[in-house]
Amino acid sequence: MRPKKLFIVLILISLVLLPVTPASADEATVSDIAKELICQCGCDMVLSACNHLVCDWRDTMLASIEDQIAQGKSKEQIIQSFVDLYGESVLASPPKKGFNLVVWILPFAAILGGGVVIYLTVKAWVRRGRQSATISKAEKGDEKYRKRLEKELEDFSGDGFR
User: Mean of the pLDDT values across residues 84-99?
Assistant: First the structure.
């Protein structure tokens, strides 16, 4: 009987200590949505960071977000309404589908390609450096032939061909 009571007490304690999510956690907030949209005043800043003192676009868009939240629309529905109204340029980050996928992949591909080019270039330089080192070693071994050539050139330059 004692293990049964201990089990019940542990269950009750775990229920009390488990984090309880608030009911409003699923609801979208104005600041959450404003972080995903670009202000349309021409400043090209995120709506929540538009720093113009008087920005009618920002105020209008924030009021629209508040109205749509009051109507019970979800975050995705609100963002889609702005996309329908202003086009995809209103999004702070392009969607990861279709041609916009290139925008997400291209920077990483460029960095990877640049790394490969740098690696191959450095490898070629190292190989060329090793080859020139072996050539200079071979030149040092030919010292007696160089002296003989210099002597013969001195002898030859006095008389010439004619």
Answer: 84
